[in-house]
Automatic annotation (TrEMBL), chain A:
Entry protein name: NEDD8-activating enzyme E1 regulatory subunit
Protein function: Regulatory subunit of the dimeric UBA3-ULA1 E1 enzyme.
SUPFAM superfamilies: Activating enzymes of the ubiquitin-like proteins
GO molecular function, one term: NEDD8 activating enzyme activity
One GO cellular component, as annotated: cytoplasm
Family recorded in the similarity comment: Belongs to the ubiquitin-activating E1 family. ULA1 subfamily.
Any one GO BP annotation for this protein: protein neddylation
Transmembrane segments: none
Lineage: Eukaryota, Fungi, Fungi incertae sedis, Chytridiomycota, Chytridiomycota incertae sedis
TrEMBL record, chain B:
Function: Catalytic subunit of the dimeric E1 enzyme, which activates NEDD8.
Gene Ontology biological process terms, A to Z: protein neddylation
Record-level Gene Ontology MF annotations: ATP binding; NEDD8 activating enzyme activity
A GO term from the CC aspect: nucleus
The protein's name in its UniProt record: NEDD8-activating enzyme E1 catalytic subunit
Lineage: Eukaryota, Fungi, Fungi incertae sedis, Chytridiomycota, Chytridiomycota incertae sedis
Ligase is among the record's keywords: yes
Keywords: ATP-binding, Ligase, Nucleotide-binding, Ubl conjugation pathway
Pathway: Protein modification; protein neddylation
EC number: 6.2.1.64
Organism encoding this protein: Chytriomyces confervae
Record flagged with keyword Ligase: yes
SUPFAM superfamilies hit by this protein: Activating enzymes of the ubiquitin-like proteins
Length: 524, 427
């Protein structure tokens, strides 16, 4: 069964291609990511990126592996003790997937961050763990300035933390459960003509039961408008419209299509509009000057804005959900929507091509344009806050954080504790409770560090209880493999969403309490 | 350092988990007793763990348990390795395709994590008896089938004798689908069991036969036409094997022909495989998240170093990142762990076959081939054939001719170690 040349990518990656398709996979295979420090959280993150076939990874790490490093890391074995941690981890990670390149840079992360910012230029994305707060801040600033997405992930005892900092991330394919864009309230010419071609009163019972609900609603709306002039908008109007649809039913005939129509009455009554967040993306695009560096997302947004201005609507998605119907009527309906969406996409493509040509940018491909138009109602742009602003003093979000900390189940206190731990480390150059005999004294010291952090942030010192501080000292900077693997999973999942530009990533912090197994996402 | 053959823990090897086993804390339960005895217990055979399933979750679980210090682990899986597993089942390589998942996984873990003994079993969970399952401290399920989970759940719960605490076996269960997943802890008799929450399962999408046969609209309808209607006619004695490329090719060709005839677009080989095998997308990251959450619960259960989840955590990663943790409620009339019987009101006009059909529809029970009895009378038995033939005429009889108001009808299903007791009332 197994041949020398290896399996085809279609077979090997089948279960993930169903989620992000060939173009998502291509993006993954073109990515080159950097991971700073090869602890268990880092190698677990990488495992989940090497397996699906990321292009290449680089580990920046100069640590010599010790017994504890090997104990919790699946990508180090006992022969690595006393050897370069990054080198061994790179080898064992590469062994997972022959499609992936892996490199190790045996340098001190602190030194590279401080003196060689251009080192980071070539990476698609940067992940860091086990860095001091000062290094995180400096590295985040380097990435922010270059527009490189930056993720800071950590597993500290039973606490997990992930922060994403990205200046701008645009998503075309958010993959909702279904895309619905039927234009019942504003049918285009071909659609109206098709709906008119049905004479409901003369149809045989079987044919009547197979009239697509879209046709039923279009005819009903036409009749309503003929006598009322506008869409049914108030509750009494909608109820009257509903009764009107109901009255079109033929007694004794199977009514699945009418049931579907009744379920969609509300939708038929609502006007097709450009959703607010999409409108603001289009407005932003309109105000933009296109340069050779402008991404195809923004060129297409600009083209779509122009299209929307003349058409007073977005390009049609061209998707028809399955509905009770005979094959011929359904396929005809599908073709009408699809043809129209192709026309719309072709127009957007032509506008985009001329915009690109005028500014020396690369024109988006037809495939890309078609995907953009199909998802035009669902476009999303994410801009997280920067880590620099998050760490500024007083904390810009202090009052929200203080509010959230009141909730007993909230994970936000763990965020404050980790900042306390970082302050402790900066003051004492070690982690609280690392050695058993230090636990008692470190409780007092960590309390002091936390009080300092809270005060500088602009929060009450009482925000953190003694119990939470004690439990944090108990953790003794241990990196439990289960927590490392959990956070590695979470981090890699966000990385995949970022690199494929599909699905919606976190904005911007995820915290996990491994004791209660409760998580929470926060915009910090 | 020579580790081969001899189990040598190098200095500081268990530093990370030991921190939590050496130290108490304000969030450790009162029952927590830290120290060397606890650490030895975790490493010992007295703390033997069973991992059910050596697939996406199983591979992760074995790694997680081994690196948390569990040294005695059994793993059961009846499957062999397929190429499409390699994107996430990281203990397998291309050269392993066709081999037993349990055996390859066990071997890999023992090589990478010296001192950990993983005993594989290449076969079905149903092959093993209560004596086998009673040797474990915790049973962890990383399964992709509802039936296997129900069987495991019912078996483990039936082993529990309230007078003998050693028979209490917690189950930790995980599951994934695409970017979503869940992890939960089942403590027999004190939390909801798997059966209690069966109605949370999403039903697989099915299309009405008349659509498939007469009015196909979607590519899926054409594929099901080929697999449900054409295949049994063409190959009445062969079951479709979704892993056989010849079978998939035949179905794909037939589905394409039908699609072309009706002007339907979108039949592809990938979709054909997806529909025929009911493929659920699966990725490394979600598996890692769910398996880690699951193993984390096992570690807390085994050590009492912290509370366990109460009792269900779901993870949704496709739109932002969202988790929701909540207690699933026990059902008083759960056929596995409940104490009350189920009251069922049915129309007095119902015949037995109508009762049977309503049982098949019942989301909370999901019977496939139910057999019915009342007291020691068989009402309808799916087998053996003579008994089936003898009871078949009852299907056309009124239920009210067969049982009295308030009688208990016992429903069993050969695939499940459960009997459902229904108290019948006529409307």
């Amino acid at each position: 069964m197994a041949s020398q040349e290896g399996p085809s990518k279609e077979q090997k990656y089948d279960r993930q291609l169903r989620l992000w398709q060939a173009h998502g996979q291509r993006a993954l295979e073109n990515a080159n990511i950097l991971v700073v420090n090869a602890c268990a959280t880092a190698t677990e993150t990488l495992k989940n990126l090497v397996l699906p076939g990321i292009g290449s990874f680089t580990i920046l790490d100069d640590k010599v592996a010790d017994g504890a490093d090997v104990g919790n890391n699946f990508f180090l074995d006992h022969t690595a003790i006393g050897q370069s941690r990054g080198k061994y981890a790179t080898e064992l990670l590469r062994e997972l997937n022959p499609d992936v390149d892996g490199f190790h840079v045996d340098e001190s992360p602190s030194r590279v961050i401080a003196s060689e910012p251009s080192f980071f230029d070539k990476f698609t994305l940067v992940i860091a763990t086990q860095l001091s707060e000062a290094d995180v801040k400096a590295l985040a600033a380097i990435c922010w300035e270059r527009g490189i997405p930056f993720l800071h992930v950590r597993s500290y005892g039973f606490v997990g933390y992930l922060r994403l900092a990205v200046k701008e991330h645009a998503i075309v394919e958010t993959h909702p459960e279904s895309i619905l864009d039927l234009r019942l309230d504003c049918p285009f010419k071909e659609l109206t003509e098709y709906a008119d071609s049905f004479n409901l009163s003369t149809l045989e019972n079987t044919d009547f039961a197979h009239v697509p609900y879209v046709v039923i609603l279009l005819q009903a709306l036409q009749a309503w408008r003929a006598s009322n002039g506008k869409l049914p908008s108030t509750t009494p109007e909608r109820n009257a419209f509903k009764a009107m649809v109901k009255s079109m039913e033929r007694p004794g005939v199977e009514d699945e299509n009418f049931q579907e129509a009744m379920k969609s009455v509300f939708r038929a009554c609502s006007a097709t509009v450009i959703p607010g967040n999409v409108a603001s993306i289009l407005n932003e695009a309109k105000a933009m000057t296109i340069t050779p560096e402008t991404s195809s997302f923004w060129i297409l947004a600009c083209a779509t804005a122009e299209f929307a201005e003349s058409e007073k609507s977005l390009p049609l998605a061209g998707v028809v959900p399955d509905m009770k119907s005979d094959t011929e009527s359904f396929v005809k309906l599908q073709t009408i929507y699809r043809d129209r969406s192709h026309q719309d996409a072709a127009r957007v493509h032509a506008i985009a091509a001329s915009l690109a040509a005028a500014s020396g940018a690369t024109a988006p491909s037809m495939d890309e344009t078609a995907r953009f138009c199909k998802n035009a109602r669902l476009l999303k742009v994410i801009r997280t806050s920067s880590i620099e602003s998050e760490l500024s003093e007083p904390c810009p979000k202090a009052s929200e954080i203080g509010q959230m900390a009141q909730d007993l189940d909230s994970c936000i206190p763990f965020y404050l504790l980790l900042r306390g731990v970082d302050a402790f480390y900066a003051e004492h150059m070690r982690y609280p409770g690392y050695h058993l005999e230090e636990v008692e004294t470190d409780i007092g010291l960590l309390k002091k560090s936390c009080a300092g952090v809270l005060t500088r942030m602009g929060l009450a010192v009482s925000t953190l209880t003694d119990d939470l501080i004690h439990e944090t000292v108990r953790a003794g900077a241990s990196e439990l493999h289960t927590m490392a693997s959990f956070m590695g999973g979470v981090c890699s999942q966000e990385v995949i969403k970022l690199i494929t530009s599909q699905y919606v990533p976190l904005n911007n912090t995820f915290l996990y309490n491994g004791i209660k197994s409760v998580g929470g996402s926060f915009d910090l | 350092m020579q580790v081969d053959g001899v189990v040598n823990d190098w200095p500081n090897r268990w530093r990370h988990p030991d921190v939590y086993m050496d130290r108490g804390g304000p969030f450790a339960p009162e029952s927590f007793i830290g120290g060397d005895e606890l650490k030895e217990f975790i490493h010992s055979e007295d703390c033997k763990i069973l991992v059910v399933g050596a697939g996406g979750l199983g591979c992760e679980l074995l790694k997680n348990l081994a690196l948390m210090g569990f040294k005695s682990i059994d793993v059961i899986d009846m499957d062999t390795i397929d190429v499409s597993n390699l994107n996430r089942q990281f203990l397998f390589r291309y050269k392993d395709v066709g081999k037993s998942k349990a055996e390859v996984a066990a071997e890999f873990i023992m090589k990478r994590v010296p001192g950990c003994v993983v005993t594989p079993y290449f076969g079905k969970i149903q092959d093993k008896d209560e004596e086998y399952y009673s040797q474990f401290a915790i049973i962890i399920c990383g399964l992709d089938s509802v039936e296997a989970r129900r069987w495991m759940n019912a078996t483990v719960l039936s082993m529990y004798d309230e007078d003998d605490p050693s028979t209490l076996k917690p189950i930790v269960d995980g599951g994934t689908e695409g970017f979503k997943g869940q992890s939960r802890v089942i403590i027999p008799k004190s939390t909801a069991c798997y059966e209690c929450s069966l109605d949370m399962q999403t039903k697989p999408v099915t299309f009405p036969i008349c659509t498939i046969a007469n009015t196909p609209r979607m590519p899926e309808h054409c594929i099901q036409y080929a697999s449900i209607l054409l295949w049994p006619k063409e190959y009445p004695t062969t079951k479709i094997d979704g892993d056989d490329p010849d079978h998939i090719n035949w179905l794909f060709n037939e589905a394409s022909k039908r699609a072309e005839e009706y002007g339907i677009r979108g039949v592809t080989r990938t979709l054909t495989m997806g529909v025929v095998k009911n493929i659920i997308p699966a990725i490394a990251s979600t598996n890692a998240i769910v398996a880690a959450a699951t193993a984390n619960e096992a570690f807390k259960l085994a050590t009492s170093c912290a509370a366990t989840v109460n009792n269900y955590m779901m993870y949704v990663g496709d739109e932002g990142l969202y988790t929701y943790t909540f207690p699933l409620e026990k059902k008083a009339d759960c056929p596995v762990c409940g104490t009350e019987s189920v009251k069922l009101a049915i129309p007095a006009t119902w015949k037995l076959h109508e009762l049977m059909e309503s049982l098949l529809e019942r989301q909370g029970t999901q019977m496939k081939k139910p057999s019915l009895a009342c007291g020691d009378r068989s009402l309808y038995m799916q087998g053996p054939p003579p008994l089936e033939a003898a009871t078949r005429p009852n299907l056309e009889k009124l239920v009210s001719e067969l049982v009295k108001e308030g009688d208990t009808v016992v429903v069993t299903d050969s695939g499940l170690p459960i009997s459902l007791k229904l108290v019948i009332h006529f409307e």
